[in-house]
Amino acid sequence: MIDHTVRTHRSAESLPREDQFAWKLAAVATDDVPVTPEVADMVINRVIDNAAVAAASLTRRPVGSARDQALAHPGKPGAAVFGVEGRYSPEWAAWANGVAVRELDYHDTFLAADYSHPGDNIPPILAVAQHTGRTGADLLRGIAAGYEIQVNLVRGICLHEHKIDHIAHLGPSVAGGLGALLGLETETVYQAIGQALHTTTTTRQSRKGEISSWKAYAPAFAGKAAIEAVDRVMRGEGSPSPIYEGEDGFIAWLLSGAGTEYTVPLPAPGEAKQSILDTYTKEHSAEYQSQALIDLARRLGPRVGEFRKIERIVIHTSHHTHFVIGSGAGDPQKYDPQASRETLDHSIPYIFAVALQDGAWHHERSYDRARATRPDTVDLWQKITTVEDPEWTRRYHAPEPSFGGRVEIALSDGTLLSDEIAVADAHPAGARPFAREQYIAKFRTLADGVIAAADQDRFLDTVTRLGELDAAEVSGIALPAGLDAVPTSKGIF
Question: Locate the MmgE/PrpD C-terminal domain: which residues (predicted)?
């Protein structure tokens, strides 16, 4: 890996395209190195994982609305929209499928200087692969490139401290992944990355206060915008540049400004793209920084005994966990029994209370309105706070990061229970790391009652041969849930 320094430049300074950061990202995307067997296996795992969580969300309202919008845009050759027959314009198929993947906050993650769900690269790259007749090997190459770019942007550039949503790293990564998929020239991908960044820089209000369905839509928006950017650039159109370094550009006015340098690692020419191997998925349908704490709650529950004896619970954790999903966010909605599901899955006080009482976590039952308003749960929930612990913040940013914390439970009889956990059980360094068996089990569980067993078998058989698939087989990657291809909501389209 090579560390690249990125900073602002005055317009009067000469900054050749080859020295611009967007060009360096594009060069990574267009470096046609072989996909290693380990990376290919992990790409397959994540395609299965995306399909699992999409299947579980197909009948939810936000997913239905996005699908209805896609239904108004049929296309030839087109791409598949999960749950329905027919072929649709690829940017709209990516939109619908991206919302389905993201709706339950239940797929893969990478946390470093910033946050990300790199599996969000898959729906737009798959849709374009289907529309353009690409093979499974092409698809593997595109997905590996998308992951590589997003993960390394997340390693080096913090967005959240400036209240910028993390899709500002996703737009460029999808553009790069599409460039790799389609075998485009570096110049074309460079322009598309610039357009994608320019159009997908949005605020973090989508993940603050009363969180709405836009949390699921935001990554799909980035994927759709990146497809459109690549299409425009392939027709000869350009981008604002230098998009990262410009005097009125991304770093200058939206991040830390002139005088600040960011360091982003990228593969050297000819070096394999392997950053997907550093990412991890979720066993539980909740924000990633709650995964380990759910596992710890399940472990602590039997030790507590009678939950009515709890006087207070304090979770000592990292800066990110405290300020994003903990009491450090200052969001009263995180303690509101009437809050949206999207808000509850970003509330560690709520999540820890339910996991402690139930000894389990479920993507639907744990968020049910009756569950969220149960009096004993509400009472316990209000007793839970988080504090930032410098040691856990240090461990969060360590080379082998920890995403957990230490929990102290004070009981009315004076007993103080304490325990800690570094990473989730399903994490590669955890007690039960996810492997192909667990990805398939997650898919089977979430697809049960939604996708017929024979169709589940066909999907898994196809996807597990991803690198060998011809264009027709790639076109057949879909979730045939048998939903009517008739919109049930009304809008402009």
Answer: 284-466
pTM, two decimals, is 0.94
What is the mean predicted confidence (pLDDT) over 170-198?
98
| Whole-number Å distance between alpha carbons of 457 and 448 | 12
Radius of gyration (C-alpha) of the chain in whole angstroms: 22
The domains located in the chain, with CATH, are: 2-281 (1.10.4100.10), 288-421 (3.30.1330.120)
| E strand or H helix that includes residue 461 | helix 453-463
> What is the distance between the alpha carbons of residues 195 and 200, in angstroms, rounded to a whole number?
9
The CA distance from 341 to 415, in Å, is: 34
* Half-sphere exposure of residue 128: CA atoms within 13 angstroms, side-chain side: 29
Mean pLDDT of 345-358: 97
- Provide the Cα torsion 326, 330, 331, 334; round to 10°: 30
pLDDT digits (tens, 9 = 90+) for 355-398: 999 999 999 999 999 999 999 999 999 999 999 999 999 999 99
DSSP-derived secondary structure letter, 164? B
Q: Which tokens go with 425? A: 């059980």
Q: Which amino acid is at 456?
A: Q
Question: DSSP characters for 19-32?
Answer: GSHHHHHHHHHH--
Residue 48 in contact with residue 438, Cβ under 8 Å? no
Q: Which residue has the tokens 């325990």?
A: 419
Give per-residue pLDDT as tens, 76-97.
999 999 999 999 999 999 999 9
Supply the pLDDT for residue 481: 85
